[in-house]
Amino acid sequence: MPDLTSLQQQAETELAQAADAEALETWRIRWLGRKGLVQQAIDHLATLPREERAAYGKAVNAFKQAVQAAYEARAQALKEAQLAAELTAEGFDPTLPGRRPAVGRMHPTTRTLRDIYAIFAAMGFQIYTARDVETDEFNFQLLNFPKGHPAREMQDTFYTTVPDVILRTHTSPGQIRAMRDYAPEPIRVILPGRCHRYEQVTARSEMMFYQVEGLAVGRNVTFGDLKGTLVAFANQMFGEGRKLRFRCSHFPFTEPSAEVDIDCIICGGKGCRVCKYTGWLEILGCGMVHPTVLRNGGYDPDRFSGYAFGMGPERIAMLRHGIDDIRYFYSNDVRFLRQLGW
Ligand code: DAH
Fold this sequence. Notes:
The chain is of the alpha+beta class and 342 residues long. It is elongated, with a radius of gyration of 38 Å. It starts with a helix and ends with a helix. A hairpin with a 2-residue loop joins strand 6 (244-251) and strand 7. Helix 1 (4-17) packs antiparallel against helix 2. It has eleven helices and nine strands. The strands form two sheets. The chain has a seven-stranded mixed β-sheet with strand order 1-4-5-9-8-7-6, with helices on both faces. A two-stranded antiparallel sheet has the order 2-3. It has helices spanning 4-17, 21-32, 37-43, 50-88, 108-122, 136-139, 173-182, 223-238, 291-297, 313-321, 334-340; strands spanning 126-127, 133-135, 165-167, 187-196, 208-218, 244-251, 254-263, 280-289, 305-311. It has two domains: 4-88; 108-340, BirA Bifunctional Protein, domain 2 (2-Layer Sandwich), CATH 3.30.930. The structure holds 3,4-dihydroxyphenylalanine.
């Protein structure tokens, strides 16, 4: 019968000599491995006469547990010793500041969009998400730009390989989609999203940009409502006391149409480089929804009226933060984002 007491002593003596992880593993296989010395001692049980088994079984079990406990204690001690050695090794200075993980920040377009949403949400506008890939019909025809209409020239278009399927050049086609979803209920929505134009990229224009469209349709909606809404928006977006100027303009889908300027937020209207010495900055286009467009959306223009507007959030961000080149927005230079400090 194996002498468990001396076996245990032997195990512990050898364990004390295992000075590193490799030696410890060799010891573990020798003692606690599947065919190791502990298992051999356990296997001995089967060879004993019945009356000796209970006593031996108990002893061999205690032996196994003691060897295992010794192993775990040694493994822990070696691990701690190794960590202590690394901490005191030359070249390691635990007082040095850690490396900060790079934290992302909000893109100025996202930030501006969220500000716009909050202002219009407070005035009862819901966000309506329309599609980025549109048809010629929705992007132009239903908005009163028939094929060959000269106003199409202002919106050079990305075509796809599918006939008449295009990338939307403005968010206005969402007006038709929103109206068709809700007519004949009154609606008040903003439609934010990406637009694409096949244009030369310059400081003032990008191929991809955002727009936020606004649309309100109901009974007795007037140009006065449009003005009030836009004045309230401008005062919240650019600060109280803003002056707005409505200039006659033309869009095929509104009648009458206007372009809206605010007094220059940089010079207060005195005239500077940003406002090109006019004292005014253009911020959006707007107008009363054209009767044909109302009809295309499913409303009877004799009973309903509406207003619409469209603005470019990048342009608004540029005015608010004095950014002089729209290309910074999508050229992926984090220094630009850092400058804004958000
Ligand atoms: N869709 C026009 C553009 O991209 C902007 C616009 C003007 C939208 C007047 C409107 C509007 O809703 O009423 O140039």
